[in-house]
Design brief:
Layout lengths: L1 H8 L9 H24 L5 H22 L3 H4 L4 H25 L5 H8 L2 H12 L6 H20 L7 H24 L5 H15 L4 H10 L2 H28 L2 H5 L5 H13 L5 H17 L3
Helix pairs in contact: 2-6, 2-12, 2-14, 3-5, 3-10, 3-11, 3-12, 5-9, 5-10, 6-9, 6-14, 7-9, 8-15, 10-12, 14-15
Length: 303
Amino acid sequence: MSIEVRQTITAPTRAATDLPSAAAASVAVVLWASAFVAIRDAGSSLSPAPMALLRLAVAAVALSVPMLARRDSLRAIPRARTPLLLITTYAVLWLAGYTVALNTAERHIDAGTAALLVNLAPLLVAFGAAILFKERLTRGLVLGALISLAGVAIIAGGSGSGHLDLVGVLLCVLAAVLYAAGVLVQKPALRYTDPLTAIWLGCVIGTIALLPWAPQLITELSTAPTHTLADALYLGLFPTALGFTAWSYALRRTDAARLTATTYAVPAVSTLLSWLLLAEIPTPWALLGGAVCLLGVAISRRR
């Protein structure tokens, strides 16, 4: 099995622009963009770590269904020390650590600003992948990243309603670093197992890492309003279970730097979702910045 997997991974450039991976990346971007809104809404009733615990626990349970339905589910779980260590590392850094850091940050700043700041991660991944995986920093990728960052700057410069403080900014930067580290660790982990197994194991391990906050979660859920529970269930089922599975599928078939550049579209999608779901009408600068972000993504994903 390992030989077949390695043969699949050794030529990522051939599938770098295939339609299935592009569709999977688009699903992940939309769902992750919606997560910023749901986290902000649930943050008034759930603390950062308990919210992350509930989110990962829901995702782990949801992903257990397709895992148990597979005939080879047990054989898909890696036994060797290296893949298990890689999966554990990205589970703790990305699924648990990033989620807690982002949940905490959104107690200090609004969801849109958080989405903008977390988008430092794609640049970190691009340069990290060039160093670790010898991925090429093509002119298209660099140009697309710079254009998307310009779009992010336009959105940030045109939004005067969000509350910004130093703690929130630092926490978002920390979340971006954990996000980038998680992607760079997950990429080699996917050489040893399939995307569904990898994200299921990651959610289980992340849930175990956050179990010390279970008593606090039970206490807060007893007084939380219904919409808070709905937010947490949504975060677990869609941005986490479905979103991360789609992302893992695309990452297995695409260069890490090129794929992660797609997430520059998250602030633009977050702006649109805030407009549709929260009746927050975006400014002309936000619309312009969103269009520039999408242009950068399109350029970065070209061969």
